[in-house]
Amino acid sequence: MSEIALFGNPNTGKTSLFNHLTGSYEYVGNWTGVTVEKKVGLLRDKKNHLIDLPGIYSLKPLSSDEDVATLFLLNEKFSKILNIIDASQLERNLHLTIQLLEFAKPMIIGLNMIDVSNQRGIKINETKLSELLGVSIFPIVARSGKGCKELLNSLDSNTSKNIESFKIDYGSILENKIEELSKLLPSNLNISKRWLAIQYFEGNEQVKKYLQSFIPENCLQEIYLDTEKQLITTEALSSLTKFIHNKRHQHIKKITSQILVKTKTTKPTFTDRLDNIVTNKVLGIPIFLTLLYITFMLTFDWLGFPLADILDGFISGPLTNWIMALLGLIGASAFLESLVIDGIIAGVGGVLVFVPQIFILFFAISLLEDSGYMARVAMVMDKLMEKVGLNGKAFIPMIIGFGCNVPGVMAARTIEQPKERLLTTLLTPFMSCSARLPVYALFVGAFFVKYQAFVVLSLYVLGIVIALILARIFSSVLLKNETSVFIIELPPYRVPQIRTLFRSTWDKGKGFIRKAGTIIFAGSVLIWLLSYSGPSGFDVPMNESFLAMIGGIIAPLFTPLGFGTWQAGAGLLTGFLAKEVIISTMSIIYFVPEANLQAFMATQFTPLSAFSFMVFVLLYVPCLATVVVIQKELNSKKWMAFSVFISFFIAYVLSFLIYQGGKLIGF
Amino acid sequence: MVLTDLKQGDTAIITDLSKVNILVQQRLMHMGMIEGVQVVTKRSMPFGGPLFLESHGQNISIRRNEASRIRVEQL
């Protein structure tokens, strides 16, 4: 079995094609950079693997998701390249194609969106294009899967050969230098030397690092500067990068002049008409806020809440009764019965109740991503983000972070400017992820029945406000010497396909269910065991259990915040594993008949201390998975520790102010 | 004149990009926006927010301060 690498510009339908060719799923992103990792799928004919790489404009990386593609070419083994090209943006796409052709591996091209380009009055002579580039070309419509079968069959055939024939003449000066550099490289390299040389001259940092393992740095530098000097004096150009780009551009123009036929002039598209409304000067921001509000109300109030209620009724009613009956039937011991009912059902069930709400939220986020609206949000919010030293693109990781902080942190990779990326990574965990939602739901249900939605909304807003304030402080104090930049492509709107949307939602949501079966299950058993046993043996009163002892040790720390009980302490401690575990712990600790739960909690919390507790849970530390991903993304233990420390500090100070301040004004 | 001098809906040809931030310049290049290419200002975001530009059928957005460093010739 061999590996085929899928390359293409962002927003060309690359992920749709991947799904059609492999059948295994992976979500479709409409904003630049949803596919941030190397993903592998088995082709439908089960003969080869297809590797999905991040969408890139050029092999010369600008952001860290683009590094992935270049590093792949330099270091990985694969047999063939599949290049997807957006027919309606042919010129731009061909820049990448040429760089891939220069890599000189077998290659096949999928010419996508021929339907769109036809609508826009562009006809492409595919046979001629194939002739000019020297590779086979298959017209496809990736969204519907049209033409994908033929493409799949050709991927398997071994007819495709290395393309040695393709060559752009970069002019005698550069060609000589390419030759000179190639001669310095060892003869047994299995990467095209010409490609390495061209990429180096273009300014590809990853290729430069690679070359440094063969050629001394000063020698490399010398060739580069000498070439640039010669070209600047003879060609009157500002840089080598630009020179190479221009040469390619001329070549592309020559190609397109032979294969493009414009059939009619274009009229305003659906995208133009929709953009007139949603990016309208006056309406843009209100429309975005309204959409967020609708999402929020759907999740909590209109749809999510009643569904969660039904599920809760089922788990604590019929399901518990059935399991009790079953346990009675097999004559289970009191220990086992307590473990199952008080531990597992209370702990895992307490979290599973929130599955409907979490799926609604993920559905809404998928809808924003797949439609192409996300890029508009970045544009609409850019001015606000600029004020705090970030750019509009940073808003996207934050919105994704509302679903789960882990993909949110990873989405920060598409930000070009290193400083802004660092800040976005550090601040995304302040977005209230769906795992924190169960905690709010339990507390607002007990203390703020009348103002449920309002109280929860205030927590979401608080997370955003804190993140923005911190961004402002960090960008002006810690990292002040870099300018902020913003540039984003606004892809055409696409009506999301229902099937894609559901699978995308499922893909995001299944992690939550998996967590319920693993971490939360294990955590529930452990917590129950700690609450069931104590120094004096098993089946002790809860207050004399090990759990009470452990929670009691850290409880005094939280007394000034209004929740210095061992129950709260134990919940917060276990909540580091995953925020939902807080609710598992509380469900186990407060396991009392439904009717008494609220009365019981009222003995432990006042409305004020309950709010202070929720604020603390919102901010205190990112969960274990998020901390790990922050460390990986920033490649720095220092910043990871900083992230944990700063969030705990802010949570503590803010909860303290809320509780003590609230008491002063008489709550 | 520079790009920010254009009114909504005006078309112009880019004549000089060299003063633009290098990261933005390279991205613009990736998206095919180089000297000699036509560009239309479609609208701008409120409170001095970014510009919404169109160039041969693709839409992009850049900040006003970067746009003011792009020299253009109105058509």
Automatic annotation (TrEMBL), chain A:
Mode of membrane association: Multi-pass membrane protein
Annotated residues for binding of Mg(2+) 2: N19, G23
Entry binding sites for Mg(2+) 1: T22
Subcellular location, record wording: Cell membrane
Keyword entries, A-Z: Cell membrane, GTP-binding, Ion transport, Iron, Iron transport, Magnesium, Membrane, Metal-binding, Nucleotide-binding, Transmembrane, Transmembrane helix, Transport
Regions annotated as coiled coil: none
InterPro entries in alphabetical order: Fe2_transport_prot-B, Fe2_transport_prot_B_C, FeoB_Cyto, FeoB_GTPase, G_FEOB_dom, Gate_dom, P-loop_NTPase
The UniProt record lists the keyword Ligase: no
GO molecular function: ferrous iron transmembrane transporter activity; GTP binding; metal ion binding
Main location: membrane
PROSITE patterns the UniProt entry points to: G_FEOB
Residues of the FeoB-type G domain: 1-161
Record NCBIfam families: feoB
Protein's job: Probable transporter of a GTP-driven Fe(2+) uptake system.
Homology family: Belongs to the TRAFAC class TrmE-Era-EngA-EngB-Septin-like GTPase superfamily. FeoB GTPase (TC 9.A.8) family.
Protein name: Ferrous iron transport protein B
Lineage, highest ranks first: Bacteria, Bacillati, Bacillota, Bacilli, Bacillales
Automatic annotation (TrEMBL), chain B:
GO molecular function per UniProt: transition metal ion binding
Keyword Iron belongs to the record: yes
Keywords tagged on the record: Iron
Keyword match Iron: yes
InterPro entries in UniProt: Fe-transptr_FeoA-like, FeoA, FeoA_core_dom, Transcriptional_repressor_C
Coiled-coil intervals, chain numbering: none
Domain named Ferrous iron transporter FeoA-like: residues: 1-74
Secretion signal span: none
Annotated protein name in UniProt: Ferrous iron transport protein A
Species this protein is from: Chengkuizengella marina
Lineage: Bacteria, Bacillati, Bacillota, Bacilli, Bacillales
